[in-house]
Amino acid sequence: MTALLTGERIDNWIGGQRVAPQNGQYMESEDPSIAKTWTLVPDGDATDVDAAVSAASEAFRGPWRSMPTLSRAELLRSVANEIAKHKEELATIESRDNGKPIAESVAGDLPAVCEILKYWAGAADKLHGETVEVSPTSFNFTVHEPIGVVGIIVP
Question: Sign of torsion, CA 139 143 148 151?
Fold first, then answer.
């Protein structure tokens, strides 16, 4: 992560590894506090999205779907702990990227991200289906299970 503070270009993260955009194109990310480029970010296209969805779908069908809920919870907690451990560095990167004061990210954004991850870690083994009696001799039941990959665009 420290490399980002030195202006190293950022690549996509697909299938657990850094991947350059398939079209080879990057765009500049300007540090608003100095009005200068601080790093390059992928200017990807549908090919990169397809690769990311494919990798996520493979992970979904494989390790994630079969992972015990307590292991999922531990994984989410470990991500929260890593974010907390690197909060100063992450806040600096966020500030360089969008101009937000570092103190705001350290005191607000990053703790909120950690709390959200910990909340869902705590919920991982508490999401249960229901049994519904439909007659004196039969019942229906529901099962909560993941259904697949979702692709979203966030600002």
Answer: positive
Domain edges within the chain: 2-141
Per-position b or e across 83-121, b if 16+ CB within 10 A of its CB: eeeebeebbbbbbbbeeeebeebbeeebeebbeebbeeb
Q: Which of 33, 141, 124, 39 is nearest to 80 (CA)?
A: 124
pLDDT in tens, 60-93: 888 877 889 899 999 999 999 999 999 999 999 8
Question: Considering the domain 2-141, what is its CATH architecture?
Answer: 3-Layer(aba) Sandwich (3.40)
Q: pTM of the prediction?
A: 0.76
Tokens, residue 59: 């992970």
